[in-house]
Amino acid sequence: MSAITTVIFDMFNTIAQDGYDLWRQTFAAIIEEQELDTTPDELRHAWDYGAGNFRDRRTAPGAPFISYLDGWAEAFATAFVELNVQGDGMAASQKSIDDLGTRPLFPDSAEALSILGQTHRLAVISNADDA
Questions:
Q1: Helix axes of 68-83 and 89-100: crossing angle, nearest 10 degrees
Q2: Taking the domains of the chain in order of start, what are their residue ranges?
Q3: d(CA 55, CA 40)
Q4: Could you tell me which of 14, 24, 11, 31 has the C-alpha nearest to residue 99?
Q5: Does the pLDDT at position 2 exceed 70?
Q6: Nearest-CA neighbor of 124 among 35, 5, 12?
Q7: pLDDT of 16 strictly over 80
Q8: Burial class of residue 113 in the structure, from the number of CB atoms within 10 Å of its CB (0-12 exposed, 13-18 middle, 19+ buried)
Q9: DSSP letters of the chain?
Q10: Alpha carbon 47 to chain centroid distance?
Q11: For 83-110, how does the pLDDT look when each residue is reduced to its tens digit (9 = 90+)?
């Protein structure tokens, strides 16, 4: 009998895909929905700065909890100012969260989990919040 009883996986980029091209599609959809005069790459670059600041604040020792919805909304609001476009940061954040929740599994994820689940307890974790 194996000493390993439980196998824990991170969700994104382990079980579910979450690469640059998927995020680029999300940014393109935000631009189209909000009729913004920018490109997906420009928006991503501007958003990355604010999203990085959010991650740093969120993981600082003793930092108060900030949801991804609120943190990303702030990052989008900052990006929209930087790009000089009139966008809705909260709507862009919600679109990002909605899209993240529909990311496709890697082709071998379901089979691997099924096989491992026959002999081990499985858990999936993520640093994402309940949204």
A1: 130
A2: 1-17+105-131, 19-102
A3: 21
A4: 24
A5: no
A6: 12
A7: yes
A8: middle
A9: --S--EEEEESBTTTB---HHHHHHHHHHHHHHHT-SS-HHHHHHHHHHHHHHHHHHHHSTTPPP--HHHHHHHHHHHHHHHHT----HHHHHHHHHHHHTTPPBPTTHHHHHHHHHTTSEEEEE-SS---
A10: 13
A11: 999 999 999 999 999 999 999 999 999 9
Mean pLDDT of the chain: 93
Q: Is 16 within 8 Å of 64 (Cβ atoms)?
A: no
Amino acid identity of residue 73, one-letter, is A
pLDDT band at 57 (very low <50, low <70, confident <90, very high): confident
65 confidence band (pLDDT: 50, 70, 90)? confident
Q: Tokens in use for 66?
A: 């900030």
Token reading at 7: 């196998």
| CA-wise closest residue to 92 among 22, 41, 44 | 44
What tokens does 33 get? 């929905």
Amino acid present at 36: L
